[in-house]
Amino acid sequence: PGSSPSFRLWPTADRDFSLAQAARMAISAEAADARQFEPVLLNQAQNKLADARELIDREQYPKAQRLLEQAAVDAQLAAARSQTERAKQAVAEINRSIENLQNRLEMDEQ
Asked: What does the alpha-carbon distance between residue 10 and residue 19 come to, in Å, rounded to a whole number?
């Protein structure tokens, strides 16, 4: 009759982040170009993920859970900031195209 740890390796509630969930979030952040736009935040997420793995191996589940939650938040923030930056770049490109078209129209009118 051993006691089960409070940490879960699978999601059991909204607040419980599994190792797999946190790793997926870090992968998603990389897919959102976080390596380019938010490398420090992405590295923090990946480091916390690695530290959490070590804590799980040492059965320090509450500490691992906190690190997994932090890693997930860092990864989500890195992804969101990267997506925002990509959107800003797309808007800037569209604005340049509009400006070029306006300049052409003005030249054609002259």
From this structure: 8
